[in-house]
Design brief:
The protein is α+β, with helices and mostly antiparallel strands. The chain has helices at residues 2-19, 195-216; strands spanning 25-28, 40-43, 48-50, 55-66, 70-74, 79-83, 87-90, 98-102, 105-106, 109-113, 120-123, 136-141, 156-157, 159-165, 178-184, 188-190. Helices cover 18% and strands 36% of the residues. A hairpin with a 4-residue loop joins strand 5 (70-74) and strand 6.
């Protein structure tokens, strides 16, 4: 029974390593995205931070075009941008950047919206495909994002642009309902689980098997 249990631990570690690195869909926003136009990046992806410890970062509000009240919360809602319903605001003047401290791993942020029969929210770590009728966000990297639509786009960097589609008008792939940019002072963003974390889980399972084998001998 113990042998079976330890083997299950190892298998669970490998399964986590295989499934938690959420697949990202490379795609581009259409010309009707009024905040930043056509950019290439990732749908159905989640944002991770690779760093040796907490990192200072800056969050900027880039704009929105929405008929709903939409909000971006980071660090458990301690810091947020909220925009009013029924208005448009692109690269707004006078909206100051917010300084935050981010912890490594899956970043703690969410978008909320009153669109449809809301309120609804989409959490980082639970992002969905834009073809669903659920709120979701788009990720692209660089100060101005990836403007070259060629099917090849950076998978990380020190600057991430996050763009919400609140799905108020159904799945539309527009992603201009609330747009923010996060700039790191240190560390690197990625859309996948950092490899050392998955290897550590796998190693823990194999270590358990090794210890059990020594006890048997």
């Amino acid at each position: 029974m113990k042998k079976l249990l330890l083997a299950s631990v190892a298998v669970a570690g490998m399964a986590f390593a295989a499934t938690d690195a959420r697949a990202a869909i490379i795609g581009s926003t259409p010309a009707s995205n009024d905040v930043f136009g056509v950019l290439e990046g990732f749908f159905n992806a989640n944002l991770f931070l690779i760093a040796g410890g907490p990192v200072n970062a800056t969050v900027e509000f880039l704009g929105f075009e929405a008929g709903a009240t939409n909000t971006f919360n980071i660090n458990g809602g301690a810091t947020e941008y909220s925009v009013s319903a029924g208005s448009s605001n692109f690269f707004p003047a006078g909206v100051l950047p917010i300084n935050v401290v981010l912890n490594p791993g899956l970043l703690d942020f969410e978008f909320t919206t009153t669109a449809g029969n809301g309120p609804f929210s989409v959490l980082n770590g639970a992002n969905v495909d834009p073809l669903t009728d659920d709120p979701n966000f788009f990720i692209t990297f660089g100060f101005a994002g990836d403007a070259l639509v060629d099917g090849v786009t950076p998978g990380g960097g020190t600057i991430a642009i996050l763009a919400l589609d609140d799905s108020g008008a159904g799945p539309d792939d527009n992603h201009d309902d609330l747009v923010v940019r996060i700039t790191l002072q240190d560390g690197t963003f990625t859309t996948e689980v950092p490899e050392p974390a998955t290897l550590a889980l796998l190693g823990a399972g194999l270590l358990g098997l090794g210890l059990y084998g020594r006890r048997r001998r």
